[in-house]
Design a protein that fits this description.
Elements: H1 2-24, H2 33-43, H3 50-62, H4 66-87, E1 97-98, E2 101-102, H5 104-107, H6 110-128, H7 137-151, H8 156-165, H9 173-183, H10 185-195, H11 201-228, H12 231-234, H13 240-243, H14 249-253, H15 255-273, H16 281-292
Antiparallel strand pairs: 1-2
Helix pairs in contact: 1-4, 2-6, 3-4, 3-10, 3-16, 4-6, 4-10, 7-10, 8-9, 10-11, 11-15, 11-16, 15-16
Length: 295
């Protein structure tokens, strides 16, 4: 029964963010049509919306207004979509498949994909910059700063740069985790903190610890699935990182130890939000989902 309640909650919010993004993105028939069509192709109708769900769950805990949560969830999903478009390009990870369909640059072309990423990133900040989004203007500025840092050279973009520079290099676990704290963890942490923008200092500090651990767990599980799942199940090319000679948790730790590490990160995340009891139920369930997912 509890599992069904979570499933219903997740589906309700997945539908909500899909509708919000559909409304936020420019219409496909609005000039320039190809760019707008490609933006919608890349941002709609795919993925589990884990970042948006984390944002909504943190908002539930911290009593953040729903309109603010919608804007925050939209912003992190748009940043995530832009990062996937750019990551898949030939100059980056060079992948032809994303979310079970051709990558943006394969469906359209390289130039369009580059512009799609640029435009989605700009639109993400536009979501948070909307006039009167927050009654407290300083909170709105704080949200913009959180997203900017998570997206830039000290966050996701920096992590991608380290990732590209690490191909074929023997990283240790500490170096690998430092990279993924930026590449994957920064945006996941931003999703939680944006949802928690109305929270108390105690709540926000605990949620930072939760998000740091669950962000790393997300990547460890991704590396495990890259070994254990096939391309159809994943919706992207299975085994791509190993074939590209990229360091992963599985190549560094081995499969069994990587699974143990994911469990420890999960335990750390759950411990961080334990003081909030049932108020943090959705966050606990999302931690379960992230670490136990099989797509």
């Amino acid at each position: 029964m509890t599992a069904q309640i979570f499933t219903d909650w997740a589906q309700t919010h997945q539908i909500r963010i899909e509708k919000t993004l559909d409304h936020t993105l420019p219409a496909a028939d609005l000039a320039p049509q190809q760019l707008h069509s490609a933006m919608r192709y890349s941002a709609l109708g795919g993925g589990k919306r884990v970042r948006a769900l984390l944002c909504y769950a943190a908002a539930d805990l911290c009593n953040t207004e729903l309109a603010v949560a919608d804007a925050a969830a939209s912003a992190v999903e748009l940043i995530h979509a832009y990062s996937l478009v750019h990551d898949d390009m030939p100059c980056m990870d060079d992948d032809d498949l994303r979310r079970g369909k051709p990558s943006c640059h394969k469906q359209y072309d390289d130039a369009t994909a580059l512009l799609v990423g640029d435009a989605l990133q700009s639109l993400a900040f536009e979501c948070l910059a909307h006039p009167n989004l927050c009654k407290n203007a300083s909170l709105q500025l704080q949200m913009l700063a959180i997203l900017a840092q998570a997206s830039g050279s000290l966050g996701m973009a920096g992590g991608q740069a380290i990732d590209l520079a690490s191909v074929g290099k023997p990283l240790n676990q500490t170096e690998l985790e430092a990279m993924h704290c930026l590449k994957t963890g920064a945006l996941i942490q931003a999703a939680v903190l944006l949802g928690a923008v109305s929270g108390s200092v105690t709540q926000i500090n605990a949620l930072k610890v939760y998000a740091q651990n669950i962000g790393l767990a997300f990547q460890v599980v991704d590396d495990i699935l890259d070994v254990e799942a096939d391309s159809q199940t994943l919706g992207k090319t299975a085994g791509k990182d190993a074939n590209s000679n990229k360091p992963t948790y599985v190549t560094i730790l081995g499969l069994a130890t990587a699974k143990m590490h994911a469990q420890q990160l999960y335990n750390n995340a759950i411990a961080a939000i334990a003081p909030f009891g049932d108020q943090a139920l959705r966050l606990r369930e999302l931690a379960d989902y992230i670490t136990q997912r099989r797509f």
